[in-house]
Design goal:
The protein is an alpha/beta fold. The protein is 52% helix and 10% strand. A hairpin with a 2-residue loop joins strand 8 and strand 9. It is globular, with a radius of gyration of 29 Å. It binds one RNA strand through helix 2, strand 8, strand 9, helix 13 and helix 14.
RNA sequence: GCGGGUGUAGCUCAAUUGGAUAGAGCACCGGUCUACGAAACCGGCGGUUGCAGGUUCGAAUCCUGCCAUCCGCGCCA
């Protein structure tokens, strides 16, 4: 915040006034400044009088009057009044808004860096080897990317961690299946892998009760429950796979080479999808379960040595003081579990990566799992970095993607909808719309090359999908309705892109912002737009803490809406007074940059035309 | 059975974390383009915030009890 920040100035003035009016003991009273919810009331309001009234035993309105008698807002506030039970309503002077806009009109747009120099580790996407990506991965990728970009915007180093499901009996089963099928792994496609995966699954469960296993099989990514094939009483297929796994672990060169090829094939396909989605993640983000494999025995030993784990019916478990269900970290047969791997991963991320914040962008149904793992890791101090700083461990759990019927989104055949298919359809529909509009000779996109139009269509389609995913509370389920998303009307990603594109062409026609342009937000629409702009840094800071991108979506949508109103009410190019025109152009330019910056944090492109 | 989430306009979602008359979008009705881009703007219709109590100046938000619904619950990941 700069010293031109009118809200900080008002806050300070009120604190001084409260101290002066009520004496010592009222040194540090929060004026409870809030944005006014309705413009009729004012721009901002202070709600301190109500709580202070109680403390002083005086009517809140009287308290408010006393404060206003004492306060000196300088020329920041143009109008103040008392309303209702004791709200202090304030209207900012145009000059104060102008000064604040001037202060934020810098490359940073007022967004401050986070002081921490530790990296942040984000566990996101987390695909399963040999499986196609499906909608279950969409949210982790989109939300994770938005969070990562927001933290990077604040100067943090973000280490994306693709916690691959690349180890264990499931993977061994697929390998065995591939060899049975005589598949040449040098030319293997993800299709082959996916098929082998399904066949392996079918074989594994053929000899056993299938219903429950089938239900789990279709549940989602490996971080959900994809293969229910590790129960005791393994049949021959599983026994053989476990044998393979032992050999693989022992370093059998041929098996290891096949295993690598399988991973490479999967990840090449993943990369293609990730790139098309515009999610920033590369192969150097890969750190799968296999990475932690040789640390798992040590994890269990550490818990045993510290007395935090005990043996129970042959298994090793960790107890929690407030829960009766323990967490198993080693099975009776000596095998390790998902929890064991996650404990190793936390230790790696604090001890080796030095991360002071570890975020998990994983389905919310795993809340209990992460609660257990986080708490257990704290028992051994594995949440602390080398410098003694305790890392913040956070599970950003997201809800399920539902179809129009309100049930988890599936294809007609009942399998999980392919993520690539969804993305391609969104892009196709975005491109169709862009192409159709470019037919109009007066359209700004008229005459653009097919390549350019395709690029714009892609940006529009992707923005539609992402905005739908990001604009509501991540923890809740949401209905994936392609028709609504790509209607491109109302509260959608394309609406934001459209606002941005209009500003671009406006500035284009004007030849940019004139030298010496000064902010003069006198018209109500100009001032409202200006006030909204001033809130940008705050919302970015907020999202980087709360991990709620939907607040940024809401902010940008309001900004775009206020711009649309302003655009309707205030002529820019036709403004008669050159100073007014210059002011409006500068305002437009600032809106454009904030929109573009905000869209980028959400992982969306902002084309100049659409 | 135990634990957790959710419940807001016909539909999809918000609500600055306890503030004023609960807001948007879609749908519906009515206005605004020989154009600073109508993917837009302006107005209208639409609510007992699941129900019942409680806390206080003030509750969608906090507490208690119900109802509905979804999810999780030791050797799967």
């Amino acid at each position: 915040m700069t010293n031109a920040d009118p809200i900080a100035l008002i806050d300070q003035s009120l604190r001084v006034a409260i101290r002066a009016a009520f004496g010592e003991g009222f040194d540090d009273v929060d004026p409870i400044l809030r944005e006014a919810q309705k413009r009729e009331f004012g721009d901002w309001q202070a709600n301190v009088a109500m709580s202070l009234g109680k403390r002083l035993g005086k009517p809140p309105r009287e308290v408010a009057e006393t404060i206003l008698d004492q306060v000196d807002f300088g020329d920041v506030v143009s109008e103040s009044s008392i309303a209702g039970p004791g709200f202090i309503n304030l209207r900012l002077s145009p000059s104060a808004v102008a000064a604040a806009l001037l202060a934020m009109d810098t490359p940073s747009l007022g967004v401050a860096n986070d002081p921490s120099d530790h990296p942040v580790a984000i566990d996101m996407v987390s695909v399963n080897v040999a499986k196609r990506m499906h909608v279950g991965h969409l949210r982790s990728a989109v939300i994770g990317d938005a969070i990562a970009r927001t933290l990077e915007r604040r100067g943090r180093t973000v280490i994306r961690q693709n916690h691959l499901g690349d180890w264990g009996t499931p993977i061994a089963l697929v390998l065995a299946q591939l060899r049975n099928n005589g598949v040449n792994l040098d030319e293997v496609t993800l299709e082959d892998l996916d098929t082998a995966y399904r066949e392996a699954q079918a074989n594994a469960k053929a000899d056993r009760r299938g219903a429950e296993a089938t239900r789990r099989f279709f549940a989602g990514s490996h971080r959900h429950a994809e293969l229910e094939a590790q129960n005791e009483g393994a049949d021959e297929v599983i026994a053989a796979a476990k044998q393979d796994l032992v050999q693989l672990q022992a370093g059998d060169p041929e098996l290891h080479a096949d295993w690598r090829k399988m991973i490479d094939c999967t990840l090449d396909a993943v990369q293609e999808t990730i790139d098309l989605l515009g999610v920033r993640m590369r192969r150097d983000s890969d750190k799968g379960e296999s990475f932690y494999n040789d640390q798992l025995a040590g994890v269990v030993d550490a818990f045993l040595a510290s007395g935090k784990a005990r043996e129970d019916d042959g298994a090793i478990v960790v107890d929690f003081p407030d829960r009766d269900r323990p967490m198993i970290i080693r099975k009776r047969d000596g095998g390790f579990l998902y929890a064991t791997t996650d404990l190793a991963a936390i230790r790696h991320r604090t001890h080796d990566l030095n991360a002071d914040r570890i975020l998990y962008i994983v389905d919310i149904r795993q809340r209990d799992h992460f609660r257990d793992v986080f708490e257990a890791s704290r028992m051994l101090g594995w949440d602390t970095c080398a410098d003694g700083l305790a890392a913040e461990l956070n599970h950003l759990g997201f809800g399920t993607v539902l179809g129009a019927d309100g049930k988890p989104l599936k294809t007609r055949s009942g399998t999980n909808a392919s993520l690539m298919g969804l993305i391609e359809e969104a892009i196709r529909r975005g491109t169709d719309a862009v192409l159709a509009r470019s037919q109009d000779p007066s359209a700004p996109t008229h005459g653009l090359s097919e390549e350019d139009l395709g690029r714009i269509g892609r940006a529009v389609g992707i923005a539609a999908i992402k905005y739908a995913d990001l604009s509501s509370d991540a923890a809740k389920d949401y209905v994936f309705d392609m028709d609504r998303m790509v209607a491109f009307e109302g509260d959608t990603g394309p609406y934001l892109l459209y606002a941005h594109a209009r500003i671009c062409s406006l500035l284009d026609r004007a030849g940019g912002v004139p030298n010496g342009a000064q902010f003069q937000p006198h018209e109500p629409a100009e001032k409202d737009l200006g006030l909204q702009l001033l809130g940008y840094a705050k919302v970015v800071h907020q999202v980087s803490h709360s991990l709620e991108p939907h607040h940024l979506c809401g902010y940008l949508h309001r900004l775009a809406g206020l711009f649309a109103s302003f655009y309707q009410q205030c002529s820019v190019l036709k403004a008669e007074d050159p100073a007014v025109q210059a002011s409006r152009l500068r305002l437009c330019d600032l809106v454009r940059r904030v929109l573009s910056d905000g869209l980028d944090l959400l992982g969306m492109e902002s084309p100049q035309r659409m």
